[in-house]
């Protein structure tokens, strides 16, 4: 009897241990990283598909997820979904006995659910944003045809925006109107914000009016061909542009945003190998559509200007020759030179992006042109 009782107690204890072992949850841990840079992604979501069980990664991209045994999903059908804003979601099957899963997420190129940085320094999904927003990437501003200024590069890329130049002079001022003309005497230009800092887009007069004095009784801007300060920005340095055209933009940035807001994010360095980008463009500019000059004969000259017209025409034929004044004024072929250099890189604690630009554009009128030299540095350091 004693042996039988000992055997029953041992069997009961064994069944108790087996039941305890089956009741323990499965723990899965690992790291979520950026597939492009290899850097950890903090705040990424790790969720068991079709359940509410999940967790987020810490500052180093690490996570630990406990999956209870009574999940209601067969072990061979369990899957984990990894997601983060700006990256493509990824699902991985959780096989039996797996305790470690390291995942690399790829950037979402299409950006269907990208976020918009607003004046409150928060992020809002585009589908929930109460503003009309146009998004332009840096690739759309450069790499095709070199533009003289940043605002010139915006032309034709913003739906509903009226972008026009004051004149055809090289580097001439550009008028950007997102919501039409809202004032007679005030400024109708949008508010420009670069990396969170408001840009003073004052226009510097070129001094052309000092010769003609054509704007003595009116506004100076369109006649005097000023240059906007946003033209100082190199289009090659821009990462992305968010344009807020809705009236509610004024609720974020105040009355100065009543004409719209142009939010510019410049390029920054990433950890990894140092990258050097160098480009140089050389071109020629010339008059595109000349108006042409009227051709006379001795008879037509006499018909329009009398006998004196015939005499002047014959004199021109014999000695002075015909003068094409349109060609004399606009017949110059200007040389276009553009040199750009940027260096970016860094490590986990310090990233840098340094760029420089030298531009020299000659006009089709002798003695006119546009010269610009710029340098920019973005340095980020984590203490």
Detailed description of the structure:
This protein is α+β, with helices and mostly antiparallel strands. The chain has helices spanning about 1-25, 150-155, 210, 220-225, 250-255, 300-320, 325-330, and strands at about 25-35, 45-50, 55, 60-65, 80-85, 90-95, 105, 115, 125, 135, 160-165, 175, 190-195, 195-200, 205, 225-230, 240-245, 260-265, 270-285, 335-345, 350-360, 370-380. A hairpin with an 8-residue loop joins strand 11 (about 160-165) and strand 12. The longest helix is centred in the C-terminal third of the chain and has 23 residues, at about 300-320. The relative contact order is 0.10.
Helices and strands, in order, run as HEEEEEEEEEEHEEEEEHHEEHEEHHEEE
Largest sheet, in brief, is:
5 strands, mixed
Q: Number of helical runs? A: 7
Overall mean pLDDT stands at: 76
Integer-rounded radius of gyration: 34 Å
Number of strands: 22
Shape: elongated
Estimate what percentage of residues fall within beta strands: 25-35%
Major beta sheet, strand line-up:
10-17-18-13-14
How far the N terminus sits from the C terminus, by CA atoms, comes to 73 Å
Class per helix and strand makeup: alpha+beta
Low-confidence stretches: 17-22, 218-222
Q: Level of helix content?
A: 10-25%
Brief synopsis:
The chain has 383 residues and is α+β, with helices and mostly antiparallel strands. Helix content is 17%, strand content 34%.
Give me some keywords for this one.
single chain; 383 residues; alpha+beta; five-stranded mixed sheet; four-stranded antiparallel sheet; 7 helices; 22 strands; elongated
């Amino acid at each position: 009897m004693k042996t039988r009782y000992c055997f029953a107690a041992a069997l009961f204890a064994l069944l108790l241990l087996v039941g305890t072992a089956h009741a323990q949850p499965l723990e899965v841990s690992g790291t979520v990283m950026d597939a492009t840079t290899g850097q950890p992604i903090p705040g990424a979501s790790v969720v068991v598909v079709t359940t509410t069980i999940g967790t987020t990664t810490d500052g180093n991209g690490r996570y630990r997820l406990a999956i209870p045994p009574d999940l209601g999903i067969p072990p061979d059908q369990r899957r984990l979904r990894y997601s983060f804003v700006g990256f493509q979601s990824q699902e991985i099957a959780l096989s039996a006995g797996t305790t470690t899963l390291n995942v690399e997420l790829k950037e979402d190129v299409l950006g269907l659910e990208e976020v918009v940085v607003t004046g409150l320094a928060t992020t809002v999904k585009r589908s929930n944003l109460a503003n009309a927003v146009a998004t332009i990437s840096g690739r759309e501003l450069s790499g095709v045809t070199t533009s003289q200024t940043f605002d010139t590069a915006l032309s034709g890329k913003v739906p509903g925006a009226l972008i026009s130049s004051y004149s055809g002079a090289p580097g001439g001022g550009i008028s950007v109107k997102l919501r039409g003309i809202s004032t007679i005497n005030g400024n109708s230009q949008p508010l420009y914000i670069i990396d969170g800092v408001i840009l003073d887009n004052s226009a510097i007069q070129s001094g052309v009016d000092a010769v003609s004095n054509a704007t003595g009784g009116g506004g100076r801007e369109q006649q005097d061909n000023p240059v906007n300060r946003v033209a100082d920005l190199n289009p090659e340095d821009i990462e992305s542009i968010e344009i807020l055209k809705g009236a509610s933009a004024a609720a974020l940035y105040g009355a100065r945003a009543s004409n719209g807001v142009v939010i510019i994010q410049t390029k920054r360095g990433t950890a990894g190998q140092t990258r050097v980008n160098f480009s140089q463009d050389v071109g020629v500019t010339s008059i595109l559509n000349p108006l042409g000059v009227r051709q006379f004969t001795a008879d037509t000259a006499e018909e329009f200007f009398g006998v004196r017209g015939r005499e002047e025409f014959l004199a021109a034929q014999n000695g002075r020759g015909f003068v094409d004044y349109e060609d004399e004024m606009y017949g110059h072929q200007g040389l276009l030179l553009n040199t750009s250099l940027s260096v970016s890189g860094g490590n986990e604690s310090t990233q840098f992006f340094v760029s420089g630009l030298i531009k020299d554009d000659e006009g089709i009128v002798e003695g006119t042109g546009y010269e610009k030299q710029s340098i920019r540095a973005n340095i980020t350091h984590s203490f």
